[in-house]
Amino acid sequence: MIKLSKRLQAVADLVTEGSRVCDVGTDHGYIPIYLVGIHKIPSALAMDVNEGPLLRAKEHIAAQNMTDAVSTRRSDGLKALLPGEADSVVIAGMGGGLMIRILEEGAEKLATVRELILQPQSDIALVREYIRTHGFTIVAQDMVYEDGKYYMMFRCVHADICKDSLSDGQENMAEKLALYDRYGRQLIEAEHPVLVDFLKKEETQLLRIQGSLEKAEKTDAILSRQREVLEKLRMIEQAREEMLVSCSVEK
Predict the structure, then answer these.
(1) What is the pLDDT of residues 42-72, one digit of tens each?
(2) pLDDT, tens only, 175-213
(3) To pair with 97 at 20 to 30 A between CA atoms, which of 112, 127, 151, 215?
(4) Are the beta carbons of 16 and 115 closer than 8 angstroms?
Protein backbone atom coordinates (compact mmCIF):
# COMPACT_ATOMS: atom_id res chain seq x y z
CA MET A 1 0.00 0.00 0.00
CA ILE A 2 1.21 3.49 -0.91
CA LYS A 3 2.07 5.66 2.10
CA LEU A 4 1.41 9.32 1.44
CA SER A 5 3.35 12.30 2.75
CA LYS A 6 1.55 14.41 5.35
CA ARG A 7 0.69 16.98 2.66
CA LEU A 8 -0.75 14.48 0.20
CA GLN A 9 -2.59 12.64 2.99
CA ALA A 10 -4.37 15.86 3.96
CA VAL A 11 -5.34 16.39 0.31
CA ALA A 12 -6.62 12.82 -0.05
CA ASP A 13 -8.63 13.12 3.17
CA LEU A 14 -10.67 15.96 1.65
CA VAL A 15 -11.92 13.84 -1.27
CA THR A 16 -15.54 12.74 -0.90
CA GLU A 17 -16.00 9.00 -0.62
CA GLY A 18 -17.36 7.32 -3.75
CA SER A 19 -16.17 10.03 -6.15
CA ARG A 20 -14.64 9.41 -9.53
CA VAL A 21 -11.42 11.38 -9.20
CA CYS A 22 -9.37 13.26 -11.77
CA ASP A 23 -5.92 14.10 -10.43
CA VAL A 24 -4.44 16.98 -12.45
CA GLY A 25 -0.64 17.14 -12.40
CA THR A 26 -0.57 13.67 -10.89
CA ASP A 27 3.23 13.27 -10.92
CA HIS A 28 3.78 9.78 -9.39
CA GLY A 29 0.06 9.01 -9.25
CA TYR A 30 0.17 8.50 -5.49
CA ILE A 31 -3.16 10.12 -4.60
CA PRO A 32 -5.30 8.09 -7.07
CA ILE A 33 -3.48 4.89 -6.14
CA TYR A 34 -3.96 5.51 -2.43
CA LEU A 35 -7.66 6.42 -2.70
CA VAL A 36 -8.47 3.36 -4.80
CA GLY A 37 -6.29 1.19 -2.55
CA ILE A 38 -8.27 2.06 0.59
CA HIS A 39 -11.55 1.67 -1.36
CA LYS A 40 -12.53 5.29 -0.78
CA ILE A 41 -13.16 5.81 -4.50
CA PRO A 42 -14.09 3.37 -7.30
CA SER A 43 -11.85 4.78 -10.02
CA ALA A 44 -9.47 7.59 -10.93
CA LEU A 45 -7.90 9.36 -13.87
CA ALA A 46 -4.31 10.47 -13.42
CA MET A 47 -3.37 13.32 -15.75
CA ASP A 48 -0.16 15.25 -16.35
CA VAL A 49 1.16 17.54 -19.06
CA ASN A 50 4.53 15.78 -19.17
CA GLU A 51 5.19 12.25 -20.38
CA GLY A 52 7.83 11.53 -17.72
CA PRO A 53 5.49 11.79 -14.71
CA LEU A 54 2.85 9.77 -16.56
CA LEU A 55 5.32 6.95 -17.17
CA ARG A 56 6.21 6.93 -13.47
CA ALA A 57 2.51 6.94 -12.56
CA LYS A 58 1.86 4.01 -14.94
CA GLU A 59 4.66 2.02 -13.31
CA HIS A 60 3.29 2.64 -9.83
CA ILE A 61 -0.27 1.84 -10.92
CA ALA A 62 0.87 -1.43 -12.49
CA ALA A 63 2.92 -2.32 -9.41
CA GLN A 64 -0.25 -2.01 -7.31
CA ASN A 65 -2.32 -4.05 -9.82
CA MET A 66 -4.68 -1.12 -10.35
CA THR A 67 -4.63 -0.71 -14.14
CA ASP A 68 -8.36 -1.48 -14.31
CA ALA A 69 -9.26 1.22 -11.78
CA VAL A 70 -6.67 3.96 -12.39
CA SER A 71 -6.01 5.19 -15.92
CA THR A 72 -3.53 7.79 -17.16
CA ARG A 73 -3.91 10.51 -19.76
CA ARG A 74 -1.61 13.23 -21.01
CA SER A 75 -3.28 16.60 -20.63
CA ASP A 76 -2.44 20.26 -20.27
CA GLY A 77 -4.58 21.04 -17.25
CA LEU A 78 -8.16 19.90 -17.78
CA LYS A 79 -8.12 19.96 -21.57
CA ALA A 80 -8.27 16.18 -21.98
CA LEU A 81 -10.98 15.66 -19.36
CA LEU A 82 -14.38 14.84 -20.84
CA PRO A 83 -17.51 16.53 -19.46
CA GLY A 84 -19.15 14.36 -16.82
CA GLU A 85 -16.11 12.08 -16.54
CA ALA A 86 -15.16 13.02 -12.96
CA ASP A 87 -16.96 13.97 -9.77
CA SER A 88 -13.90 15.27 -7.96
CA VAL A 89 -10.95 17.18 -9.44
CA VAL A 90 -7.74 17.24 -7.42
CA ILE A 91 -5.10 19.86 -8.21
CA ALA A 92 -2.19 19.85 -5.77
CA GLY A 93 1.45 20.78 -5.55
CA MET A 94 1.64 23.60 -8.09
CA GLY A 95 1.82 27.38 -8.00
CA GLY A 96 -1.33 29.36 -7.49
CA GLY A 97 -0.98 31.24 -10.76
CA LEU A 98 -0.81 28.02 -12.76
CA MET A 99 -3.71 26.58 -10.79
CA ILE A 100 -5.88 29.59 -11.58
CA ARG A 101 -5.00 29.27 -15.28
CA ILE A 102 -6.03 25.61 -15.25
CA LEU A 103 -9.31 26.44 -13.52
CA GLU A 104 -9.99 29.33 -15.90
CA GLU A 105 -9.27 27.33 -19.04
CA GLY A 106 -11.23 24.35 -17.73
CA ALA A 107 -14.30 26.28 -16.54
CA GLU A 108 -16.63 24.47 -18.94
CA LYS A 109 -15.41 21.05 -17.75
CA LEU A 110 -15.82 22.06 -14.11
CA ALA A 111 -19.54 22.72 -14.60
CA THR A 112 -20.12 18.96 -14.36
CA VAL A 113 -17.73 18.39 -11.44
CA ARG A 114 -19.12 18.16 -7.90
CA GLU A 115 -16.02 19.27 -6.00
CA LEU A 116 -12.51 20.66 -6.29
CA ILE A 117 -9.70 19.67 -3.93
CA LEU A 118 -6.98 22.31 -4.21
CA GLN A 119 -3.54 22.66 -2.64
CA PRO A 120 -1.68 25.63 -4.12
CA GLN A 121 1.99 26.08 -3.30
CA SER A 122 1.89 29.87 -3.66
CA ASP A 123 -0.55 32.78 -4.11
CA ILE A 124 -3.02 30.99 -1.85
CA ALA A 125 -5.08 34.12 -1.18
CA LEU A 126 -5.44 34.69 -4.93
CA VAL A 127 -6.65 31.11 -5.43
CA ARG A 128 -9.23 31.46 -2.66
CA GLU A 129 -10.38 34.77 -4.13
CA TYR A 130 -10.69 33.22 -7.58
CA ILE A 131 -12.73 30.33 -6.19
CA ARG A 132 -15.25 32.52 -4.37
CA THR A 133 -15.67 34.88 -7.34
CA HIS A 134 -16.10 32.12 -9.93
CA GLY A 135 -19.02 30.08 -8.70
CA PHE A 136 -17.48 27.93 -5.97
CA THR A 137 -17.54 27.97 -2.18
CA ILE A 138 -14.86 26.55 0.12
CA VAL A 139 -16.54 24.16 2.57
CA ALA A 140 -13.57 22.46 4.26
CA GLN A 141 -9.93 23.30 4.82
CA ASP A 142 -6.85 21.78 6.38
CA MET A 143 -3.27 22.85 7.00
CA VAL A 144 -0.11 20.85 7.66
CA TYR A 145 3.53 21.50 8.43
CA GLU A 146 6.00 19.20 6.74
CA ASP A 147 9.73 19.37 6.00
CA GLY A 148 9.95 23.00 7.12
CA LYS A 149 7.02 24.21 5.00
CA TYR A 150 3.38 25.08 5.63
CA TYR A 151 0.70 23.79 3.27
CA MET A 152 -2.97 24.76 3.00
CA MET A 153 -5.56 22.66 1.18
CA PHE A 154 -9.30 23.09 0.69
CA ARG A 155 -12.43 21.42 -0.67
CA CYS A 156 -14.74 23.51 -2.86
CA VAL A 157 -18.25 22.89 -4.17
CA HIS A 158 -20.49 24.90 -6.49
CA ALA A 159 -21.80 27.99 -4.73
CA ASP A 160 -25.41 27.15 -5.60
CA ILE A 161 -25.03 23.89 -3.67
CA CYS A 162 -23.67 25.48 -0.49
CA LYS A 163 -24.37 29.14 0.19
CA ASP A 164 -21.79 30.98 2.28
CA SER A 165 -23.24 32.50 5.44
CA LEU A 166 -21.28 35.74 5.07
CA SER A 167 -24.04 38.16 4.04
CA ASP A 168 -23.58 41.08 1.69
CA GLY A 169 -24.72 43.43 4.43
CA GLN A 170 -22.23 42.31 7.04
CA GLU A 171 -20.11 45.09 8.46
CA ASN A 172 -16.51 45.14 7.25
CA MET A 173 -17.30 42.48 4.67
CA ALA A 174 -14.37 43.42 2.43
CA GLU A 175 -11.96 43.08 5.35
CA LYS A 176 -13.47 39.73 6.31
CA LEU A 177 -13.13 38.38 2.80
CA ALA A 178 -9.51 39.54 2.54
CA LEU A 179 -8.78 37.86 5.88
CA TYR A 180 -10.46 34.61 4.87
CA ASP A 181 -8.71 34.64 1.49
CA ARG A 182 -5.37 34.95 3.24
CA TYR A 183 -5.76 32.49 6.11
CA GLY A 184 -8.87 30.42 5.45
CA ARG A 185 -12.19 30.91 7.18
CA GLN A 186 -12.53 27.32 8.43
CA LEU A 187 -8.93 27.30 9.69
CA ILE A 188 -9.53 30.50 11.66
CA GLU A 189 -12.86 29.37 13.08
CA ALA A 190 -11.37 26.03 14.13
CA GLU A 191 -8.34 27.76 15.66
CA HIS A 192 -6.32 25.24 13.69
CA PRO A 193 -3.08 24.54 15.59
CA VAL A 194 -0.92 24.65 12.47
CA LEU A 195 -2.38 28.04 11.53
CA VAL A 196 -1.76 29.29 15.08
CA ASP A 197 1.89 28.25 14.75
CA PHE A 198 2.11 29.79 11.28
CA LEU A 199 0.78 33.13 12.55
CA LYS A 200 3.41 33.20 15.30
CA LYS A 201 6.25 32.57 12.87
CA GLU A 202 4.92 35.03 10.31
CA GLU A 203 4.56 37.69 13.00
CA THR A 204 8.14 37.12 14.17
CA GLN A 205 9.46 37.51 10.62
CA LEU A 206 7.41 40.65 10.02
CA LEU A 207 8.55 42.26 13.26
CA ARG A 208 12.16 41.57 12.28
CA ILE A 209 11.56 43.18 8.89
CA GLN A 210 9.81 46.12 10.56
CA GLY A 211 12.83 46.69 12.79
CA SER A 212 15.18 46.75 9.80
CA LEU A 213 12.92 49.14 7.90
CA GLU A 214 12.81 51.58 10.81
CA LYS A 215 16.60 51.94 10.59
CA ALA A 216 16.61 52.46 6.83
CA GLU A 217 16.45 55.76 4.95
CA LYS A 218 12.83 56.71 4.39
CA THR A 219 12.55 56.44 0.62
CA ASP A 220 9.20 55.91 -1.12
CA ALA A 221 10.03 52.22 -1.52
CA ILE A 222 10.84 51.84 2.19
CA LEU A 223 7.68 53.67 3.25
CA SER A 224 5.61 51.49 0.95
CA ARG A 225 7.19 48.36 2.39
CA GLN A 226 6.51 49.60 5.93
CA ARG A 227 2.81 50.03 5.11
CA GLU A 228 2.73 46.54 3.65
CA VAL A 229 4.30 45.04 6.79
CA LEU A 230 1.92 46.95 9.06
CA GLU A 231 -1.07 45.70 7.06
CA LYS A 232 0.12 42.10 7.36
CA LEU A 233 0.64 42.49 11.10
CA ARG A 234 -2.86 43.95 11.38
CA MET A 235 -4.33 40.94 9.57
CA ILE A 236 -2.51 38.55 11.91
CA GLU A 237 -4.07 40.34 14.87
CA GLN A 238 -7.45 40.27 13.15
CA ALA A 239 -7.14 36.50 12.61
CA ARG A 240 -6.39 36.02 16.30
CA GLU A 241 -9.39 38.13 17.28
CA GLU A 242 -11.60 36.02 15.00
CA MET A 243 -10.27 32.90 16.70
CA LEU A 244 -11.18 34.30 20.11
CA VAL A 245 -14.68 35.12 18.92
CA SER A 246 -15.16 31.62 17.46
CA CYS A 247 -13.82 30.06 20.64
CA SER A 248 -16.20 32.07 22.86
CA VAL A 249 -19.19 31.22 20.64
CA GLU A 250 -18.41 27.49 20.90
CA LYS A 251 -18.22 27.72 24.68
Answers:
(1) 999 999 999 999 999 999 999 999 999 999 9
(2) 999 999 999 999 999 999 999 999 999 999 999 999 999
(3) 112
(4) yes
DSSP string, the chain: -----HHHHHHHHTSPTTPEEEEET-TT-HHHHHHHHTTS-SEEEEEESSHHHHHHHHHHHHHTT-TTTEEEEE-STTTTPPTTS-SEEEEEEE-HHHHHHHHHHTHHHHTT-SEEEEEESS-HHHHHHHHHTTTEEEEEEEEEEETTEEEEEEEEEETTTS--S--TT-TTHHHHHHHHHHH-HHHHHTT-HHHHHHHHHHHHHHHHHHHHHHHS---HHHHHHHHHHHHHHHHHHHHHHHHHHHHHHH-
CA dist 231 and 236 (Å) reads 9
pTM above 0.90, yes or no: yes
